[in-house]
């Protein structure tokens, strides 16, 4: 289940990385693979109704739990029911920029990460998770206090992954894409959210070294 903000939901007319990931997994492993989640839409910021199905390529499992302007704060109360109803076994989570930019500081955001994990495991005690740290954007390049919060949160996220990693429900922290260190992404203002053991620590500290943000999803990383 892809869980995220604008980077995950994508905009009208796009393929989205969800499509590219599904292509990669289908071609590389040839086994059963599908994306699940309670939502399927893209975001259309130019339309009166922001929900859109105008994918550049609609013929793939489009399901997700992502929302424009949503963060750990918004997803923590939703993840339990989403995991339960959609029978998700792996969560690909890219959240945090919106939290830090508009709602919570690094410590508060890290607490919401822990709440998220508690709810997800209550729905599926063997759920597996891959987390992407916050990718610094243009605001981080021009706003030192915000950049400090991003750095601090990524440190806390790594510690949280190590603390919460379990043999039966592993947490893997992906590495940041290298090119983002010199090419930050634009800021996106939020819109209202929908209502709503040593061995294991070593595993959680491993970094994704295969091509692609979510390459750590591959089977070998969860053995």
Briefly summarize what is shown.
By secondary structure, the protein is α/β, with parallel strands linked by helices. It has helices at residues 6-9, 17-29, 72-86, 97-103, 106-123, 138-142, 144-164, 198-205; strands spanning 2-4, 42-43, 51-52, 65-66, 90-94, 128-132, 171-173.
Q: Which terms would index this structure?
A:
7 strands, 223 residues, alpha/beta, 8 helices, Rossmann fold, 5-stranded parallel sheet, 10% strand, two-stranded antiparallel ribbon
Secondary structure elements and their pairing?
Blueprint: E1 2-4, H1 6-9, H2 17-29, E2 42-43, E3 51-52, E4 65-66, H3 72-86, E5 90-94, H4 97-103, H5 106-123, E6 128-132, H6 138-142, H7 144-164, E7 171-173, H8 198-205
Parallel strand pairs: 1-4, 1-5, 5-6, 6-7
Antiparallel strand pairs: 2-3
Explained architecture:
It is a single chain. With 223 residues, the protein is an alpha/beta fold. It is built from eight helices and seven strands. It has a single domain (2-222), classed as 3-Layer(aba) Sandwich (Rossmann fold). Helices cover 41% and strands 10% of the residues. The strands form two sheets. The protein has a five-stranded parallel β-sheet. It has a two-stranded antiparallel sheet with strand order 2-3. Strand 2 and strand 3 form a beta hairpin. It is globular.
CATH class: Alpha Beta
Total count of strands: 7
The outline comes out as globular
What profile does the largest beta sheet have? 5 strands, parallel
- CATH level-four homologous superfamily name: SGNH hydrolase
CATH topology group: Rossmann fold
SSE pattern: EHHEEEHEHHEHHEH
- The whole-angstrom Rg is 17 Å
Number of domains: 1
Q: pLDDT average, as an integer?
A: 85
């Amino acid at each position: 289940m892809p869980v995220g903000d604008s980077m995950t939901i994508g905009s009208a007319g796009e393929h989205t990385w969800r499509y590219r990931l599904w292509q990669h997994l289908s071609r590389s492993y040839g086994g059963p693979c599908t994306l699940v989640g309670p939502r399927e839409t893209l975001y259309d910021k130019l339309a009166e109704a922001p929900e859109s199905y105008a994918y550049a390529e609609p013929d793939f499992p489009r399901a997700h739990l992502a929302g424009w302007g949503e963060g750990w704060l918004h997803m923590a109360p939703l993840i339990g029911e989403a995991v339960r109803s959609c029978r998700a076994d792996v969560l690909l989570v890219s959240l945090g920029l919106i939290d830090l930019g508009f709602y919570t500081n690094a410590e508060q955001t890290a607490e919401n990460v822990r709440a998220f994990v508690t709810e997800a495991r209550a729905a599926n005690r063997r759920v597996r998770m891959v987390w992407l740290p916050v990718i610094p954007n243009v605001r981080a390049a021009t706003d030192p206090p915000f950049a400090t919060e991003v750095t601090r949160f990524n440190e806390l996220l790594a510690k949280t992954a190590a603390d919460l990693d379990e043999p039966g429900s592993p947490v893997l922290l992906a590495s940041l894409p290298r090119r983002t260190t010199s090419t930050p992404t634009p800021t996106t203002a939020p819109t209202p959210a929908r209502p709503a053991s040593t061995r294991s620590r070593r595993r959680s500290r491993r970094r994704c070294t295969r091509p692609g943000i979510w390459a750590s999803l591959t089977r070998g990383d969860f053995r």
